Amino acid sequence: GAGVSQSPSNKVTEKGKDVELRCDPISGHTALYWYRQSLGQGLEFLIYFQGNSAPDKSGLPSDRFSAERTGGSVSTLTIQRTQQEDSAVYLCASSTSTTGGWTNEKLFFGSGTQLSVL
Amino acid sequence: DAKTTQPNSMESNEEEPVHLPCNHSTISGTDYIHWYRQLPSQGPEYVIHGLTSNVNNRMASLAIAEDRKSSTLILHRATLRDAAVYYCILKTSYDKVIFGPGTSLSVIP
Question: Mind listing the pLDDT tens digit for each residue in B7-33?
Protein backbone atom coordinates (compact mmCIF):
# COMPACT_ATOMS: atom_id res chain seq x y z
CA GLY A 1 0.00 0.00 0.00
CA ALA A 2 1.69 3.15 -1.17
CA GLY A 3 -1.12 5.61 -0.51
CA VAL A 4 -1.49 8.35 2.09
CA SER A 5 -2.32 6.81 5.43
CA GLN A 6 -4.18 8.60 8.22
CA SER A 7 -4.81 7.44 11.73
CA PRO A 8 -6.99 7.00 13.57
CA SER A 9 -9.83 6.69 11.10
CA ASN A 10 -12.28 7.71 13.82
CA LYS A 11 -11.72 9.61 17.03
CA VAL A 12 -14.29 10.42 19.66
CA THR A 13 -13.20 12.76 22.41
CA GLU A 14 -14.65 14.89 25.15
CA LYS A 15 -14.75 18.63 24.97
CA GLY A 16 -11.59 20.12 26.45
CA LYS A 17 -9.35 17.14 25.69
CA ASP A 18 -6.35 17.28 23.37
CA VAL A 19 -6.18 15.10 20.26
CA GLU A 20 -3.43 14.14 17.83
CA LEU A 21 -4.11 13.13 14.26
CA ARG A 22 -1.44 11.42 12.20
CA CYS A 23 -0.64 11.47 8.51
CA ASP A 24 1.84 9.21 6.71
CA PRO A 25 2.40 10.67 3.24
CA ILE A 26 3.50 8.75 0.20
CA SER A 27 7.22 8.02 0.40
CA GLY A 28 9.25 10.71 -1.31
CA HIS A 29 6.49 13.30 -1.34
CA THR A 30 7.82 16.57 0.01
CA ALA A 31 4.59 18.55 0.02
CA LEU A 32 1.95 17.81 2.65
CA TYR A 33 -1.40 19.48 3.24
CA TRP A 34 -4.01 19.34 5.98
CA TYR A 35 -7.65 20.16 5.31
CA ARG A 36 -10.79 20.10 7.41
CA GLN A 37 -14.22 19.20 6.07
CA SER A 38 -17.29 19.78 8.19
CA LEU A 39 -20.44 17.84 7.41
CA GLY A 40 -21.81 18.84 4.03
CA GLN A 41 -19.16 21.49 3.53
CA GLY A 42 -16.14 21.94 1.27
CA LEU A 43 -12.46 21.48 2.08
CA GLU A 44 -11.06 24.11 4.41
CA PHE A 45 -7.30 24.60 4.09
CA LEU A 46 -5.41 24.35 7.37
CA ILE A 47 -1.66 24.10 6.81
CA TYR A 48 0.88 23.34 4.06
CA PHE A 49 4.39 21.90 4.39
CA GLN A 50 6.85 22.03 1.49
CA GLY A 51 10.22 20.41 2.01
CA ASN A 52 12.37 22.25 4.53
CA SER A 53 10.58 25.56 4.07
CA ALA A 54 8.61 27.16 6.87
CA PRO A 55 5.04 25.83 6.76
CA ASP A 56 2.14 27.97 5.59
CA LYS A 57 -0.06 28.08 8.67
CA SER A 58 -2.45 30.68 7.36
CA GLY A 59 -5.47 28.36 7.49
CA LEU A 60 -5.23 27.29 11.11
CA PRO A 61 -8.45 28.56 12.73
CA SER A 62 -7.03 29.28 16.19
CA ASP A 63 -3.94 28.83 18.33
CA ARG A 64 -5.42 25.60 19.64
CA PHE A 65 -4.40 24.05 16.34
CA SER A 66 -0.81 23.15 15.53
CA ALA A 67 0.98 20.77 13.21
CA GLU A 68 4.45 19.48 12.75
CA ARG A 69 6.22 17.37 10.25
CA THR A 70 9.14 15.32 11.47
CA GLY A 71 11.98 14.36 9.18
CA GLY A 72 10.09 15.61 6.18
CA SER A 73 7.73 12.67 6.35
CA VAL A 74 5.09 11.94 9.00
CA SER A 75 2.91 14.82 10.10
CA THR A 76 0.87 15.26 13.26
CA LEU A 77 -2.02 17.69 13.62
CA THR A 78 -2.71 18.55 17.25
CA ILE A 79 -5.87 20.16 18.53
CA GLN A 80 -5.75 21.35 22.12
CA ARG A 81 -8.77 21.85 24.34
CA THR A 82 -11.13 20.53 21.68
CA GLN A 83 -14.48 22.21 21.13
CA GLN A 84 -17.63 20.82 19.58
CA GLU A 85 -17.12 22.98 16.49
CA ASP A 86 -13.88 21.09 15.85
CA SER A 87 -15.93 18.04 14.89
CA ALA A 88 -15.17 17.32 11.25
CA VAL A 89 -13.25 15.05 8.91
CA TYR A 90 -9.58 15.97 8.83
CA LEU A 91 -7.95 15.15 5.51
CA CYS A 92 -4.28 14.94 4.68
CA ALA A 93 -2.81 15.08 1.19
CA SER A 94 0.70 14.80 -0.19
CA SER A 95 2.31 15.50 -3.51
CA THR A 96 5.64 15.02 -5.25
CA SER A 97 8.40 17.53 -4.94
CA THR A 98 8.63 20.55 -7.11
CA THR A 99 11.90 21.17 -8.80
CA GLY A 100 11.39 24.75 -9.72
CA GLY A 101 9.68 26.27 -12.67
CA TRP A 102 6.27 25.03 -13.68
CA THR A 103 4.83 22.22 -11.66
CA ASN A 104 2.09 19.72 -12.24
CA GLU A 105 2.24 17.45 -9.24
CA LYS A 106 -0.98 15.70 -8.27
CA LEU A 107 -2.39 15.66 -4.77
CA PHE A 108 -3.02 12.27 -3.21
CA PHE A 109 -5.48 12.25 -0.33
CA GLY A 110 -5.85 9.96 2.63
CA SER A 111 -9.22 8.66 3.77
CA GLY A 112 -9.36 11.15 6.60
CA THR A 113 -9.92 11.10 10.34
CA GLN A 114 -13.48 11.60 11.52
CA LEU A 115 -13.23 13.63 14.73
CA SER A 116 -16.24 13.84 17.00
CA VAL A 117 -16.13 16.10 20.03
CA LEU A 118 -18.82 15.37 22.57
CA ASP B 1 -9.97 32.43 -1.29
CA ALA B 2 -10.42 29.94 -4.10
CA LYS B 3 -9.20 31.18 -7.46
CA THR B 4 -11.87 29.27 -9.39
CA THR B 5 -15.62 29.56 -9.82
CA GLN B 6 -17.91 26.62 -10.52
CA PRO B 7 -21.68 26.07 -10.55
CA ASN B 8 -22.93 24.70 -7.25
CA SER B 9 -24.70 21.75 -8.79
CA MET B 10 -25.45 20.00 -12.06
CA GLU B 11 -27.53 17.07 -13.20
CA SER B 12 -26.93 14.57 -15.94
CA ASN B 13 -28.73 11.59 -17.32
CA GLU B 14 -26.94 8.30 -17.12
CA GLU B 15 -24.85 7.44 -20.19
CA GLU B 16 -25.01 11.03 -21.42
CA PRO B 17 -21.94 13.29 -21.68
CA VAL B 18 -21.41 15.85 -18.93
CA HIS B 19 -19.60 19.17 -19.29
CA LEU B 20 -18.52 20.69 -15.99
CA PRO B 21 -17.36 24.30 -16.37
CA CYS B 22 -14.80 26.22 -14.35
CA ASN B 23 -13.80 29.87 -14.51
CA HIS B 24 -10.33 30.97 -13.45
CA SER B 25 -9.95 34.46 -14.85
CA THR B 26 -6.95 35.34 -12.63
CA ILE B 27 -4.87 32.34 -13.69
CA SER B 28 -1.15 33.00 -14.05
CA GLY B 29 1.13 31.58 -16.70
CA THR B 30 2.60 28.98 -14.36
CA ASP B 31 -0.66 27.69 -12.86
CA TYR B 32 -1.76 24.20 -13.76
CA ILE B 33 -5.48 23.44 -13.85
CA HIS B 34 -6.35 20.38 -11.80
CA TRP B 35 -9.63 18.55 -11.33
CA TYR B 36 -10.46 16.33 -8.39
CA ARG B 37 -13.62 14.59 -7.37
CA GLN B 38 -14.94 13.47 -4.02
CA LEU B 39 -17.26 10.54 -3.83
CA PRO B 40 -19.56 10.31 -0.79
CA SER B 41 -17.69 9.51 2.42
CA GLN B 42 -14.29 9.42 0.69
CA GLY B 43 -11.31 11.72 0.33
CA PRO B 44 -10.90 13.59 -2.95
CA GLU B 45 -9.24 11.79 -5.84
CA TYR B 46 -7.33 13.16 -8.79
CA VAL B 47 -9.15 13.22 -12.12
CA ILE B 48 -7.07 15.14 -14.63
CA HIS B 49 -4.86 18.20 -15.06
CA GLY B 50 -3.48 20.38 -17.81
CA LEU B 51 -1.62 23.57 -18.59
CA THR B 52 -2.57 24.82 -22.06
CA SER B 53 -3.50 21.94 -24.31
CA ASN B 54 -6.56 19.76 -24.04
CA VAL B 55 -5.93 16.50 -22.18
CA ASN B 56 -7.50 13.08 -22.23
CA ASN B 57 -7.18 10.16 -19.86
CA ARG B 58 -9.21 7.10 -19.01
CA MET B 59 -11.42 9.03 -16.62
CA ALA B 60 -12.21 12.22 -18.48
CA SER B 61 -11.15 14.94 -20.89
CA LEU B 62 -10.11 18.46 -20.06
CA ALA B 63 -10.77 21.26 -22.49
CA ILE B 64 -8.85 24.48 -21.77
CA ALA B 65 -9.83 27.78 -23.33
CA GLU B 66 -7.24 29.46 -25.49
CA ASP B 67 -6.89 32.36 -23.02
CA ARG B 68 -6.79 29.82 -20.16
CA LYS B 69 -9.40 31.75 -18.21
CA SER B 70 -11.80 28.84 -18.23
CA SER B 71 -11.81 25.10 -18.61
CA THR B 72 -14.32 22.28 -18.92
CA LEU B 73 -14.16 18.79 -17.52
CA ILE B 74 -15.88 16.34 -19.83
CA LEU B 75 -17.20 13.00 -18.70
CA HIS B 76 -18.02 11.19 -21.93
CA ARG B 77 -20.66 8.84 -20.55
CA ALA B 78 -21.89 9.57 -17.06
CA THR B 79 -22.52 6.60 -14.82
CA LEU B 80 -24.12 6.46 -11.40
CA ARG B 81 -20.63 6.04 -9.94
CA ASP B 82 -19.70 9.47 -11.29
CA ALA B 83 -22.07 11.17 -8.86
CA ALA B 84 -19.68 13.24 -6.74
CA VAL B 85 -18.47 16.74 -5.95
CA TYR B 86 -16.05 17.90 -8.64
CA TYR B 87 -13.40 20.45 -7.72
CA CYS B 88 -11.46 22.62 -10.14
CA ILE B 89 -8.31 24.12 -8.62
CA LEU B 90 -5.24 26.03 -9.73
CA LYS B 91 -1.92 24.49 -8.76
CA THR B 92 0.94 26.91 -8.28
CA SER B 93 4.53 26.07 -7.50
CA TYR B 94 5.41 26.17 -3.82
CA ASP B 95 1.98 27.40 -2.77
CA LYS B 96 -0.97 26.06 -0.85
CA VAL B 97 -3.95 24.67 -2.71
CA ILE B 98 -7.32 26.23 -1.94
CA PHE B 99 -10.46 24.32 -2.83
CA GLY B 100 -13.72 26.06 -3.61
CA PRO B 101 -17.12 24.50 -2.92
CA GLY B 102 -17.01 22.54 -6.20
CA THR B 103 -19.87 21.27 -8.32
CA SER B 104 -22.12 18.57 -6.97
CA LEU B 105 -22.97 16.29 -9.87
CA SER B 106 -26.11 14.18 -9.73
CA VAL B 107 -26.59 11.38 -12.25
CA ILE B 108 -30.14 10.37 -13.04
CA PRO B 109 -30.74 6.75 -14.00
Answer: 999 999 999 999 999 999 999 888 899
